Input
Amino acid sequence: MILELAVIYTTRLDACRDFYRGIGLALVRERHGNGPEHYAATLADGGVLELHPATSRPETGYLRLGLTAPPNGAGFLPPGRHTLTDPDGRTVVLTVADARPGQASPEPRPGGHPRSAAGSRASNGGPVPPEGRTGVTYTEIAEHYGMSARYLSENPRWGRHPGWPAAIGKRGRTIEFDPEAIARFFGEHHTREATALEPSRRYTVVEIAEASGLQPDSIRSDISRGRWPAPDEMDGDRKLWRGETITTHLAGRRIYRNKPK
Output
């Protein structure tokens, strides 16, 4: 028996999209007929994981998912087994494979959602071209990295950066870029760094902000919206989190910092 489709219904669609993209799933925005807009990722064996807004259907409750990512295919997470929590509180056990000489990524089985002929490129963390194409557009790049196409194309840190890859062709009036070159650009100029926190130490919001580079107000906003893990302890009115709790949570966030020059 093969699992062909798993659907998660959520009231935090954007946050879940960012989380699952952050651990290596190449989620693509889709819409079928009059149905709701949602996101889908084709797994290595051809199965599909979809994220749907919980509108006409109730939110999916507690769930434990087990996923395996190829080497370097899960952000900054090193090889090994990692227990994460998605924005809705579901447990995701992510195993990052060791790199082995000559090891090839498994090919998807026939069927399921259409998969690009260049789909194996998703293992480098970059965007995947649609079926039948070798390049990706600003819109597809922006969707993959969680920003707007206009922001991506006009920002001097991104599309107008001197190191931004040259176009390789056109799709109608839209220019296309080599997805591998895009992935290299992001890796060279916008890297995601692990936050060094002592696993058993308790941290306040301000201390977490100082260690992670996030703004304290952003953390408080996530707490109020249910997008932050519950505190491990309370010291009077102060909320405290263990370092391992925060490290696990931040592993699912898309945090990019400029590399030091």
Summary: The two ends are 52 Å apart (CA to CA).
